[in-house]
Amino acid sequence: MMDNVFFTHPEHVSANRLELVDQEATHASKVLRFKVGDELYASDGRGNLYTTQVSSISKKSVLADILETDYDPEPTIKKVLVFGAIKKRDRLEFAVEKAVELGAWEICIFNADHSERSRINEDRLQSIVLSAFKQSKRRWLPEVTYQNSMDEVFEYYPKYHSMMAHVEADTHHPENLSYNKNLLLIGPEGGFSAREVELAKKKNTQMISLGKNRLRAETAALALLSQFLFTT
User: Residue 22 is inside which H or E element, if any?
Assistant: First the structure.
C-alpha cells in the first residue's frame, strides 16, 4: 500500500535511479526507517510517480532504483487561487495547506488594498505546500506566487478567466469552469476595495456570492475552491 510518497526534485532523477536528499532522506531513513531493498514511492512534482527499490542509504541521501514510472498529465482546467494576504500566520498557513488539498494549480498571495501588511515566511509556506502535496498524493506540485497588488495579479496572469467572490454579487452559484485557465479571487479580512472591484469588472471578472453569511478570508478561499472539486 502506498502510505508514504516522498518528493524528489526532477534534477535528482535519471533514467533508472532517483535520489532523496535533505529532509526527505532523513524522514525516509531515520523516521520511517527504510532499509536497502524496501519499496519506496516518490514524486517529482511534475506528474511522475515512481515505484522504486532502495539501493543505498546515508545520512543525507537515499538512492533508489526506478522500477516503474506512472505519469499523470497536466489537468486540462487549471485553478489558480488568488487571495489577499492574511495577517494571522496560522490562518494563512491553513488556507495554503487546504488550497493544495483542494486542487489549486497555483496559489497567488497579493497585498490587497485592505490587507494588513505583515511579513510572510515564504520558506515555511513552501514547506507546507510540499507536505500537503505529499499527503494528498498529488502529482503536480503547486507553485506559490506573490504579487504587490491586484493590478500585478492581472498582469502576471494574462488571458485568464477570473471569478471574484464578492458580497454584493447577484450570482449565488458559480458556473462550471469551462475555461482552461481560471483565477479564483478572494479578498482579505477587510474585503476588496471599490477600486479593486472596478478593476476586476474591467477585466470581465465574473462576480459570485458564497452565500448570505460573512466568511473569514480562509473560509471563503476553501468555499470557492470546493465548488470545483471534480473539475479537472
Answer: helix 22-26
Enter the C-alpha cell of residue 105. 494549480
Contact 182, 161 (CB under 8 A): yes
Strand order in the sheet with 181-186: 143-147, 106-110, 78-84, 181-186, 161-165, 206-208
Instruction: Supply 175's cell numbers.
Output: 458556473
Q: Where are the alpha helices (DSSP H) in 82-181?
A: 89-101, 122-135, 150-156
The answer to whether the beta carbons of residues 208 and 169 sit under 8 Å apart is: yes
pLDDT digits (tens, 9 = 90+) for 173-213: 666 788 899 999 999 888 899 999 999 999 999 998 888 88
> What is the DSSP-derived secondary structure letter of residue 86?
P
Which of 100, 112, 126, 93 is CA-nearest to residue 200? 112
